């Protein structure tokens, strides 16, 4: 038995091939495969390439391919991914689920708890002991994703322009961002943002916010404080709807921003214990794609048992 687990993110896509024991046989990484940013053909090309790379040298077929993606709860995106997997024909069975579930499975295999994903986007998701689910955030960069890397980078850019206008005090973010982007002034910044900067490049500015805040910059610190408030609101919403506040559960922190802006993890952990005193905050130490592998294995075993 072989399965493939995929974490289809906005910035990157992780693909893992594993055997029936969950032992990783091969892994590959490619660009983002998010339906907010890419069309079906682009996503199919990336997923096909990743599957080809992990299957190189293995002749036996794949039993299940599981893809965890943002937007799996939306019928349009769910159907689009199913069409892609059917055209690829890399596995006998396909499983499409949301990115938050695979992260939660990777970090809390008992399928009980909350995950807060913070990368280019941001979303909270939880499951209680009754199997009920709740989600907050994750609506994309125009409608939500508050506190995400993109959101922080955009707030930094907006703060620079306000300071340039004299609508706000000068900020250390101006020099650090201009240097990072290798441009001479804020006039060039406008051109770069509207003509050239991809969402992932704006998200990549988030670490500069912490660097400026560490030097005492008020504008940068304000961005961090607001991000923490948004995380707290999202998690509090999920916990409240699932009646988890009085229970002991694991809160999994997943996504690249926790490492890129480490102050967020430290400060949010303290805030999380105020929301739910018995919570166990756990930084995900493996790829979320491991959760997709686990779900694929369970699906494959169930299919075998039913034969």
- Strand fraction equals 15-25%
* Spatial gap, N to C terminus: 15 Å
Q: Please state how the strands of the largest beta sheet are arranged side by side.
A: 3-2-1-4-5
Query: In which range does the helix fraction lie?
Result: 40-55%
Mean pLDDT: 89
Number of helices: 13
- The name of the CATH superfamily of the domain at 2-105 and 287-306 reads ATPase, nucleotide binding domain
**What is the overall shape?**
globular
Structural class: alpha/beta
Main beta sheet: strand number and arrangement?
5 strands, mixed
SSE pattern: EEEHEHEHEEEHHHHHHHEHHEH
Broad CATH class of the domain at 2-105 and 287-306:
Alpha Beta
The CATH architecture of the domain at 2-105 and 287-306 can be named as: 2-Layer Sandwich
* Number of E strands: 10
The low-confidence runs, each spanning 5 or more residues with pLDDT under 50, are none
The gyration radius over C-alpha positions equals: 20 Å
**CATH T-level topology of the domain at 2-105 and 287-306:** Nucleotidyltransferase, domain 5
Key traits:
Nucleotidyltransferase, domain 5, 5-stranded mixed sheet, 21% strand, globular
Topology readout:
Layout: E1 2-8, E2 12-19, E3 24-31, H1 40-55, E4 62-69, H2 75-88, E5 91-98, H3 99-107, E6 113-118, E7 122-127, E8 133-137, H4 140-143, H5 149-165, H6 173-181, H7 186-195, H8 199-203, H9 206-214, H10 218-242, E9 250-254, H11 257-260, H12 263-275, E10 280-283, H13 289-306
Parallel strand pairs: 1-4, 4-5, 6-9, 9-10
Antiparallel strand pairs: 1-2, 2-3, 6-7, 7-8
Helix pairs in contact: 1-2, 3-13, 5-10, 9-10, 10-12
